[in-house]
Write a structure and sequence with these properties.
The chain has about 90 residues and is of the alpha+beta class. About 40% of the residues lie in helices and about 25% in strands. The chain has a three-stranded antiparallel sheet with strand order 2-1-3. Strand 1 and strand 2 form a beta hairpin.
């Protein structure tokens, strides 16, 4: 079984959301159905990046790191070409 750290982007305003889950497909559906209060107002969402881990604690640790300012900078460097091609300024 894998655990996933994922990055979603709002199709409304380009905002990013970082999370982790054991079922990526179901979790994305929950975000897009409005079942998560913190993402409900910015629906629809699309997955722009995910990482798979065998250990749940590793996935949680990675999510926590990506939510820091240093982690956000790393994410922007990792997805540089993706963000460069967008009109929305992240």
């Amino acid at each position: 079984m894998f655990y996933y750290t994922y990055i979603l982007q709002s199709k409304v305003n380009g905002e990013l959301y970082k999370g982790y889950t054991a079922d990526l497909k179901t979790r994305l559906q929950a975000h897009n159905k409005g079942l998560n209060l913190s993402t409900k107002s910015k629906r629809p969402w699309s997955i722009i990046h995910y990482e798979a881990y065998l250990n749940e604690q590793d996935a949680k640790r990675r999510e926590k790191y990506l939510k820091t300012s240093q982690g956000s900078r790393l994410l922007k460097r990792m997805l540089k070409e993706y963000f460069y091609g967008q009109k929305i300024n992240i």
